[in-house]
């Protein structure tokens, strides 16, 4: 029992001893209204009141006709709020912290908790009772004890956070750790009281079982209310039920996982978007421990359900109501983590929208418009909250923690993709909650999307050819000369993008003039590599290279025309579209800008680290900025030839000093110039090329910028142990063949550079695909007995043709020579 409640009870005993209850027929011998009562003076009554409190003596209910200054309070805190002598408490219709304390005190004295168990079961299984319980607007006994100073134990600790004090306490500290965009007072539940009650209840053995059973009885009513009665729209306090139940820290325990929590998640998933948004904002205020507990609770339910069932083509995980509902609930915690972290919702690139034509497209005539509808999807909850995953600079919980690997193992992405693109209204797709999928699974979804587009363009080409009587051209064919690869590729791709951009959606087929190689993937890989080698050549000057970061950035004073930058964007888009990995070295801000964000000061940390450090020191400088730094709003940088260029960040910037007051504005403006304005022409052309290929792709919806980088560049982490485990053998070789054992011993002893050369020789790229080398299906085939011939490869099929050399030394010598001098394609 808290101190305020104890004092209020003593006051009631005192008034009962001095004034009575007002009932003329009262039979309580310790009440002044009883005819047998012997009157006491005030001092004696005060001492007696303390004794009666200690023995929990009988309290009379104030008679309605008996009025005193505190009668209103007494009426409110009647038998239903305070400890009643009745064992069943049958007239208790809702709970407050005080009533729970009173009931607990009663049960402790009786040594029997049956009354508490019955009350918990009754209140927590009734929607109306839960809505009314633990309200902030309940009379607080402390309000009538202003003259009493709290003890040191009752005073909030200096280290105590608003989250620990509860929502009602936190509301008094709006500047201490609360999200300014949301007022926790928007919900009428006293979170602090709920948490304190749970702390006491969950320490008792039988209470947990009562809560589980109550939740099982409660949830069917919740589902019906939300699905058919629109209860939240008529009474927003309906959300109180979910707030109270989800404060139970035992929800992840086995007792709840079987029935109670799955049913509750199904009910919660039926909440309207506005209610889910309120819940997400509320959780974002309560801090890391709370959001992590919510996340782990839903994750545990998903994992428990997935591992407890077997899924196949006839029993998809998409049809499992528990997994689907828990995933939708997990989304609330995901956005709470974003809101509670560092967010940038302001700096967005302007999207260039294609003018819509009134003419029917062939896709629409063929009934395929739903597969190819334009415009990115918008998550309704994201829209309601006004924040996107892309806006998150640093979430409270890392995005990776929301990925559920057990689910990723059983989801069938071909079926899920169909639900995502065609049956979104009737079937659930996990791609609508991309945070739960790892990049490997999402890449499968993107692969299906790209392949279906390729096949569709092939069908359309065949149809056009039949109508026009022309030879069908189902591929995007590029015939280029090795020594003029940029000119040939630029001219051809520019013509296609102007005349018929949809041809870029066809499967790429590259042919090098004068070479016999047939492109089944390997020739395209080398084409991409050669184009990028030339474009990123520092002598051309399109990009500047930082020796420290090993990264490229757009050259703001480049003499090349915009078409060259458009070509680079096209190449990146085509690489994603054709599932090729490129050796590209851009800072992360490039991918953020491609996804629709502008570069900001924090992005300078990897793109321009020296400048970032200087600006960081300026922001942290404690001295006189104006006198000591002597900076103005005029900055200088070098052009292509190393000549200094002056630029005014503001009009007449040379006359505007940087001061302590305006230094943040100076830093933001400086970063905006370096990352956005100075390279606006080059980046706009680059992004245009990228979007020509990917504008109708779900890329932007499914992937975060760091995942897009992984799609384009692959992983630089090379695990050859994983590659060895997944490699297949042909032509008489097996993993137990001596030549194979010697081969892997040799490979594992190679240095990092030699391993990359081997990977380049065998697969056409020196990087691992999404998911690591374990996802690479390499084949080692026997290519004759001992010989002086070098090993050869089919990069299209990731196949290494290895003669059965007579010794390990000869194997190493031949292999090193092959991977060191490999370039070009020929036919054996």
UniProtKB/TrEMBL annotation:
Q: Which GO terms describe its cellular component?
A: cytoplasm; nucleus; proteasome complex
Q: Which Pfam families match?
A: AZUL (PF16558), HECT (PF00632)
Give its localization. Cytoplasm; Nucleus
Which GO biological process annotations does it have? animal organ development; nuclear receptor-mediated steroid hormone signaling pathway; positive regulation of macromolecule metabolic process; protein polyubiquitination; regulation of circadian rhythm; regulation of primary metabolic process; rhythmic process; system development
The catalytic activity, as recorded, is: S-ubiquitinyl-[E2 ubiquitin-conjugating enzyme]-L-cysteine + [acceptor protein]-L-lysine = [E2 ubiquitin-conjugating enzyme]-L-cysteine + N(6)-ubiquitinyl-[acceptor protein]-L-lysine
PROSITE patterns cross-referenced by the UniProt entry: HECT (PS50237)
Protein name as it appears in the record: Ubiquitin-protein ligase E3A
Q: What is the lineage of its organism?
A: Eukaryota, Metazoa, Chordata, Craniata, Vertebrata
Gene that produces this protein: LOC115007049
């Amino acid at each position: 029992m808290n101190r305020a409640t104890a004092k209020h009870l003593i006051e009631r005993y005192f008034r009962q001893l001095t004034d009575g209850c007002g009932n003329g027929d009262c039979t309580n011998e310790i009440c002044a209204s009883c005819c047998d009562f012997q009157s006491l003076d005030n001092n004696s009554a005060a001492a007696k009141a303390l004794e009666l409190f200690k023995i929990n003596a009988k309290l009379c209910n104030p008679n309605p006709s008996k009025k005193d200054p505190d009668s209103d309070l007494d009426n409110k805190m009647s038998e239903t709020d305070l400890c009643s002598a009745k064992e069943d408490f049958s007239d208790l219709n809702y709970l407050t912290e005080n009533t729970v304390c009173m009931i607990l005190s009663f049960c402790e004295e009786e040594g029997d908790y049956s009354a508490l168990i019955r009350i918990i079961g009754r209140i927590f299984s009734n929607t109306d009772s839960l809505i009314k319980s633990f309200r902030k607007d309940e009379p607080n006994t402390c309000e009538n004890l202003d003259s009493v100073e709290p003890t040191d134990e009752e005073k909030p600790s200096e280290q105590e956070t608003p989250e620990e004090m509860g929502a009602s306490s936190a509301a008094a500290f709006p500047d201490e750790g609360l999200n300014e965009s949301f007022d926790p007072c928007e919900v009428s539940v006293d979170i602090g009281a709920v948490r304190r009650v749970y702390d006491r209840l969950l320490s008792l053995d039988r209470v947990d079982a009562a809560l589980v059973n109550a939740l099982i009885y409660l949830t069917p009513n919740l589902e019906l209310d939300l699905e058919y009665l629109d209860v939240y729209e008529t009474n927003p306090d309906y959300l109180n039920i979910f707030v109270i139940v989800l404060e139970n820290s035992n929800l992840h325990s086995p007792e709840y996982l079987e029935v109670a929590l799955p049913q509750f998640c199904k009910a919660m998933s039926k909440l309207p978007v506005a209610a889910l948004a309120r819940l997400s904002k509320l959780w974002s205020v309560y801090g890391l421990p709370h959001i992590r507990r919510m996340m782990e609770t839903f994750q545990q339910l998903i994992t428990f359900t997935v591992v407890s069932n077997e899924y196949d083509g006839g029993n998809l995980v998409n049809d499992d109501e528990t997994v689907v509902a828990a995933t939708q609930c997990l989304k609330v915690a995901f956005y709470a983590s974003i809101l509670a972290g560092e967010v940038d919702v302001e700096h967005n690139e302007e999207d260039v929208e294609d003018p819509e034509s009134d003419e029917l497209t062939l896709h629409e005539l063929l009934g395929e418009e739903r597969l190819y509808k334009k415009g990115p999807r918008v998550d309704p909850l994201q829209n309601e909250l006004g924040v996107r995953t892309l806006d998150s600079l640093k979430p409270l919980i890392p995005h990776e923690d929301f990925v559920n690997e057990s689910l990723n193992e059983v989801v069938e992405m071909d079926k899920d993709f169909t639900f995502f693109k065609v049956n979104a209204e009737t079937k659930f797709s996990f791609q609508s909650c991309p945070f739960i999928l790892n990049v490997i699974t999402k890449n499968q979804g993107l692969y299906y999307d790209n392949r279906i587009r390729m096949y569709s363009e092939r069908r359309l080409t065949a149809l056009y050819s039949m109508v026009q009587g022309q030879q069908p051209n189902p591929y995007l064919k590029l015939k280029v000369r090795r020594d003029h690869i940029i000119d040939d590729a630029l001219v051809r791709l520019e013509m296609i993008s102007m005349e018929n951009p949809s041809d870029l959606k066809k499967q790429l087929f590259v042919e090098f003039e004068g070479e016999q190689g047939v492109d089944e993937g390997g020739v395209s890989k080398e084409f991409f590599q050669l184009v990028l080698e030339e474009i990123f050549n520092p002598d051309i000057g399109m990009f500047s290279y930082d020796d420290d970061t090993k990264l490229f950035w757009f050259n703001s004073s480049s003499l090349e025309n915009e078409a060259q930058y458009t070509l680079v964007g096209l190449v990146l888009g085509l690489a994603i579209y054709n599932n090729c990995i490129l050796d590209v070295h851009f800072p992360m801000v490039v991918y953020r800008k491609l996804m629709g964000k502008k570069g900001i000061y924090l992005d300078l940390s990897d793109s321009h680290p020296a400048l970032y450090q200087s600006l960081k020191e300026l922001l942290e400088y404690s001295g006189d900025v104006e006198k000591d730094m002597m900076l103005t709003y005029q900055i200088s940088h070098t052009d292509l030839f190393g000549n200094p260029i002056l630029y005014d960040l503001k009009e007449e910037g040379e006359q505007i000093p940087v001061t302590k007051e305006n230094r943040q504005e100076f830093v933001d403006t400086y970063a905006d110039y370096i990352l956005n304005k100075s390279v606006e022409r080059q980046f706009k052309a680059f992004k245009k090329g990228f979007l020509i290929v990917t504008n109708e792709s779900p890329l932007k919806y499914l992937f975060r910028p760091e995942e897009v980088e992984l799609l384009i560049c692959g992983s630089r982490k090379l695990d050859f142990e994983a590659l060895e485990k997944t490699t297949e053998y042909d032509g008489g070789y097996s993993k137990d063949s001596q030549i194979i054992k010697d081969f892997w011993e040799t490979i594992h002893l190679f240095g990092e550079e030699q391993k990359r050369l081997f990977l380049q020789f065998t697969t056409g790229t020196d990087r691992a695909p999404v998911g690591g080398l374990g996802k690479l299906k390499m084949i080692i085939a026997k290519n004759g007995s001992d010989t002086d011939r070098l090993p050869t490869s089919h990069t299209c099929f990731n196949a290494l043709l290895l003669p059965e050399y007579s010794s390990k030394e000869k194997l190493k010598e031949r292999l090193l020579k092959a991977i060191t001098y490999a370039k070009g394609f020929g036919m054996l």
